[in-house]
Amino acid sequence: MARVMVAAIGAFVAVSAIAQTAITFRNTITGEVLNFNDALPEGKDTPAVKEFMTTGKNPYNEDMSCLKQGEQTFLSACSGCHGHLGEGKIGPGLNDAYWTYPQNETDEGLFSTIYGGAQASMGPQYQNLQLDEMLKVMAWVRHLFKEAPEKATWLTDEQRKSFKPYAGHETLPDNPPGKCQAKK
Ligand code: HEC
Questions:
Q1: pLDDT tens track for 35-53
Q2: What are the residue boundaries of the structural domains of the chain, listed by start?
Q3: Which of 30, 81, 106 for a ligand 1 pocket mutation test, highest count of atoms within 8 Å of Cβ?
Q4: Where does the secretion signal sit in this chain (predicted)?
């Protein structure tokens, strides 16, 4: 007696977990395409990272809830070389409108420099910081900008209207609403 067994073969398409990058990010010095397979596994697929990979706009810019985390990362990973206000030390100032590499005026360029590094002691940060942390530290670097808001081309028109050049000390509110608000 023949029993036909129909094996249902679940055909599925394996979709890569790596965020699809609509933008091609390139190393600031060599122009080589940056490979995000090398990024730290955590913080790689947050909504902000996914959005950034397709738009090139940092969704954390001027989001008060993210700035404190960005500041903490800046103080532990960047300020030793760039100064605690980004005013420059052994590394160049990051808080004015002059860039050694003009592409750093865009968030796409700034991200590429942090991820892939530049010259001398500006090493690639992809093994030190998660992609999501890079976006937060970038938002803090942008917040430290001390020149006229009109020059803050990375901001949206709306953000530019309320942006104030960084004036030194500022007390950030405790856990304000926003994308990085801690849930209790
Ligand atoms: C060990 C020292 C050191 C550390 C740590 C460091 N940098 Fe740098 N950075 C440098 C140096 C030196 C340069 C200049 C490199 C060059 O001109 O190619 C530089 C260049 C840069 C530039 C390019 C600036 C321009 O004018 O175009 C950016 C942006 C930058 N760093 C951001 C960061 C951020 C953000 C961090 C922390 C995540 C960081 N750096 C950590 C030393 C450092």
A1: 999 999 999 999 999 999 9
A2: 36-162
A3: 81
A4: 1-19
CATH code, residues 36-162? 1.10.760.10
**If you take atom 32 of ligand 1, which residue's CA is the nearest one?**
114
- DSSP assignment string, 23-46: S--B-TTT-PBP-GGGS-STTSS-
Q: Does the annotation place 78 within a ligand binding site?
A: yes
Predicted local confidence at residue 20, as pLDDT: 55
Q: Is 91 in the pocket of ligand 1 (CB under 6 A)?
A: yes
Dihedral, 120, 55, 155, 46 alpha carbons, nearest 10: -80
Nearest CA to ligand 1 atom 22: 113
